[in-house]
Amino acid sequence: MDDKDKQEFIACNMEKRFSSFIGMYGIRNNPAVYKTHYPTGFAKLDETLGGGLTSGLHCLGAISSLGKSTLALQMAENMVSENIHCIIFSLEMKAMDLAAKAVSRQTYIGTQGDLNLAKTSDTLRNEMAAALFSDEEWETIERASAAVEQKSQYISVVECGSDPYNVDRIGKYVQDYIQAFGVKPVVVVDYLQILDPPRTLKSAPDKQIADYNLKRLKVLSDYFSLPVILISSFNRENYDAEVTFKSFKDSGNIEYSCDTVMGLQLTGVGKEGFDAETAKARYPREVELKILKQRYGPVNAKIPFRFYTKFNYFEEVSRKSASVPPNSTQPAGKRRVY
User: Fold this and answer.
1) pLDDT for the residue numbered 160
2) DSSP assignments along 25-75, one per residue
3) Can you tell me the distance from the alpha carbon of 287 to that of 109, in angstroms, rounded to the nearest whole number?
4) In the chain, which ranges are continuous DSSP H helix?
5) Among 63, 196, 229, 238, which one is most buried in terms of CB atoms within 10 A?
């Protein structure tokens, strides 16, 4: 090492001295030491997360049809109210289908749960059903559409299309977005198991591909210092068991790679006498979001929700009112709506 290289190394190393980071905490109200929090819009969840999501990789898993994609989209809508930008990489569902879910949810919220006026997403996309809508029903849909349009002004939906997305394409899109708009978005990847592998892993086992994509998404979240919400499916054998790290399909590294790991589960799962089909048939469906890992916060907390499956709507509830009769149609307007 010549003298020039030596001096450059010393200068570079001095920037890495731990003492320089410690000193930043001695400055009152120094914004450089504070983490940016991105509120999900669900009060108990945000409280458990210390104010919301922070930069890092956050995995959200559940069994099929339990609403993990719907919950992520509702979080994104809530974040927009805080002027937070979101990019949803929808690798399975079309943007028009996501839009139908969002409008359906808003018809339910806007009518305070009036089942005569609120519309399911399937009904909204059914030409024969739409031909029978009354003027009042159309006015409800128009108001809901306008409200969702306002809510979603900072949400971008990137469909997979005929050219599958891999982590590198996602990273390039995020980089371009930051450069174009000058803001760091929350990124939602839906979902891990259908992310395209790199060419070098085209014939690799699913677990190896999933672990590779996990590591790359973690690098993406750290490099741009933003939250990445990664949706994951569960193994079939976990449909009747409480959520654990083993529930997540194709990857044993979720526990180590992610900053936060959350699992949606049916309320009461794993208890004696529990029947998954009976629990799924209830309306609204009672579910819990279990916090399995939180790098800097409490774990094993369970946040109770009611999931109105017909209208793609999650409602966070207090423990005191967590139990409701099956087939309840209590209007959402009588409870707290986020």
Assistant:
1) 80
2) GGSTT-GGGPPP-B--S-HHHHHHTTSSB-SEEEEEEESTTSSHHHHHHHH
3) 19
4) 3-15, 18-22, 43-48, 68-80, 95-110, 121-124, 127-130, 135-151, 167-181, 206-224, 254-257, 276-281
5) 229
Longest dimension (CA), the chain: 83
H/E run at residue 88: strand 86-90
Mean of per-residue pLDDT scores for the chain: 89
Separation CA 301–CA 201 (nearest Å) = 37
Q: CA–CA separation, 186 vs 86, rounded Å? A: 5
Q: What is the dihedral of CA 330, 333, 334, 336, to 10 degrees?
A: 120
Cβ–Cβ < 8 Å for 233, 61: yes
CA gap 17, 112 in Å, rounded:
57
Strand order across the beta sheet in which 285-294 lies: 155-159, 86-90, 186-190, 227-233, 56-62, 260-266, 285-294, 302-308, 313-316
Q: What's the alpha-carbon Rg for the chain, to the nearest Å?
A: 22
Contact by Cβ (8 Å): 152, 83: no
Tens-place pLDDT, residues 28-66: 888 888 889 999 999 999 999 999 999 999 999 998 889
Token digits of residue 271: 């208890």
Give the whole-angstrom CA distance, residue 317 versus residue 36. 26
Q: Strands 285-294 and 302-308: what pairing?
A: antiparallel
pLDDT, tens only, 106-150: 999 999 999 999 999 999 999 999 999 999 999 999 999 999 999
**Do 291 and 48 contact (CB within 8 A), yes or no?**
yes
Q: Kindly state the tokens that stand for 270.
A: 């794993």
Structural contact between residues 279 and 286, judged by C-beta atoms closer than 8 angstroms: yes
Instruction: Give this prediction's pTM.
Output: 0.88
